[in-house]
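Lecture 7 notes: from sequence to structure.
We start with the chain below.
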Amino acid sequence: MTKMQAQVRYGRTELSVSALCIGTSGWDHISAPEAVALLGAATSDGVNFVDTSNIYAGGRAETTLGAAFATPALSGRFVLQTKLDRNPVTGDFGYQQMFTSLQESLDRLGLDRLQVLMLHDPEHIGFQQAMVRGGPVDALVEMREQGLADHIGISGGPVDMLQQFVETDIFDSLITHNRLTLLDQSADALLTAATERDLGITNAAPFGAGILTGDPRFAGRYAYAPISPEREAAFQRLVAVCADLGIPLGAAALQFSLRDSRVHSTVVGISSERRLQEALTWANTPISDADWTQIQQAGTAP
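Predicted structure tokens for the same chain:
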């Protein structure tokens, strides 16, 4: 297996990250030994970045990562990015809840500080409420000031809202999902704004929550919702063009993100060594410039 490209600086941080980031939202049933094997294989292929969250798999993702990172062979080998979350029962997104979320994450991960800490899905309360004095953003900034997080970021969906956060110049990093894919480039202006401020940029869900892997289980849906007729037509064009060129649809979808110079790392949900090798194969699938032009035209043609 060809290794990933050399690691790059993660925006204004001092961290260096791989082009591929292991996403853990699906770590519901992976055991600690399985995680150790997966992460060990990842390091062998040059992957050094892991993205998780307080609420992924009901907290089990962080617990499993903590057990894996306690293994001497993996200690210090990864850049870890996690997220502050609202209370999943009450929906509380307040200042104190952010510190509760942080402490839960630190306990599960077995750490006393975090490299990158994100505010997760602030669309649940909106920009104004998130930014209010004594609100969740204030809590996140205080965590950085206290040395509990080296770098802080914003992670969410709606690009206009995320751009508001980016333009505050408070944050060091950004995660956008489902908005920079072969079927949706609505994050373009957001990524440009983040690049101008030298933020670390992670693009998540390059497969549009599954459909762009070509797996029929995800047919008819894009980004967790029914697909629009226009997007379905573009998807069918992509399927036909990739089949004609002999290029896996998943390879084209992943490389759409990997080829964007503004993106430092792309999150792919990976919970097994088989899935890791599939992602690496797609990342390294040769695609000529001529073929790439056809693929891009298929995704955007009227």
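Points to note: The mean pLDDT is 96. Residues 243 and 249 are 8 Å apart (CA to CA).
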